[in-house]
């Protein structure tokens, strides 16, 4: 008796061969899959008088913009060109450097006034403002008759703060340099605090600048919100300090 044909073995071998052919044919993924989806490039008709080279460059730019939008939608981080990197580095360097320079200038010029207002430096006394002359747009030259708290010292005529008004009398202190008298007490403290509030106001913009320069989108949004809150509060303190510092207290 002849053996029965091995139909099951032939079927299994044919299935394996078909599986090998299907796995090695290198067919591209389906158009609906994430790997095979391509950004839609808008086709702009060629304008009259436009050369083929310009038209191809235009289509290439449109394709690049479409690719970037598609990558941004997928959350793919963009690679910057050397020109973009250089521009971002320059923006971060000059912006951050300017803000830090402003903060340093405000601190170094305002802290001595705060120490005078707190009575830690200077010679205490009372200032009697008798003249304020305008020397320019928004600039005034005010003179005061300064009477020392020490009765052994004679009164002197000296410059005072430009926001003073003729006829004002307020407690003041002669600066260690001896060329100006400045208000002490609450008035002088509020003036110094209002100026120092400019420091956090400027520094609040440093994190958004850095996160924008390094293309950290999520961190940029968070730093922008936090920086906006800090800048708003600092601006309020600055305005309050300017108002209370210019008042006669």
UniProtKB/TrEMBL annotation:
Entry annotated with the keyword Transmembrane: yes
Transmembrane segments: 85-107, 189-213, 220-244
Keywords, alphabetical: Membrane, Transmembrane, Transmembrane helix
Region of interest: Disordered: 1-56
Compositional bias segments (type: Basic residues): 10-21
Compositionally biased tracts (Low complexity): 24-40
Domain of life: Bacteria
The protein's name: Uncharacterized protein
């Amino acid at each position: 008796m002849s053996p029965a044909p091995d139909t099951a073995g032939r079927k299994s071998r044919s299935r394996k061969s078909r599986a090998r052919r299907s796995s090695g044919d290198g067919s591209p993924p389906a158009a609906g899959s994430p790997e095979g989806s391509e950004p839609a490039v808008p086709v702009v008709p060629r304008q009259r008088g436009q050369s083929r080279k310009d038209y191809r460059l235009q289509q290439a730019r449109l394709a690049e913009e479409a690719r970037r939008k598609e990558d941004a939608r997928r959350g793919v981080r963009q690679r910057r060109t050397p020109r973009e990197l250089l521009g971002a580095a320059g923006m971060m360097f000059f912006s951050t450097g300017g803000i830090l320079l402003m903060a340093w200038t405000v601190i170094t010029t305002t802290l001595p006034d705060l120490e005078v207002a707190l009575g830690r430096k200077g010679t205490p006394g009372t200032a009697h403002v008798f003249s304020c002359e305008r020397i320019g747009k928004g600039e005034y030259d005010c003179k005061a008759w300064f009477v020392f708290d020490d009765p052994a010292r004679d009164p002197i005529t000296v410059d005072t703060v430009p926001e003073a008004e003729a006829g004002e009398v307020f407690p003041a202190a002669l600066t260690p340099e001896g060329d100006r008298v400045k208000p002490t007490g609450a008035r002088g403290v509020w003036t110094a605090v209002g100026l120092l509030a400019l420091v956090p106001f400027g520094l609040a913009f440093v994190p958004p600048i850095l996160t924008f320069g390094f293309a950290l989108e999520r961190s940029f949004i968070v730093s922008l919100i936090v920086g906006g809150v800090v800048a708003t509060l600092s601006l309020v303190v600055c305005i309050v300090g300017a108002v209370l510092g210019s008042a006669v207290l």
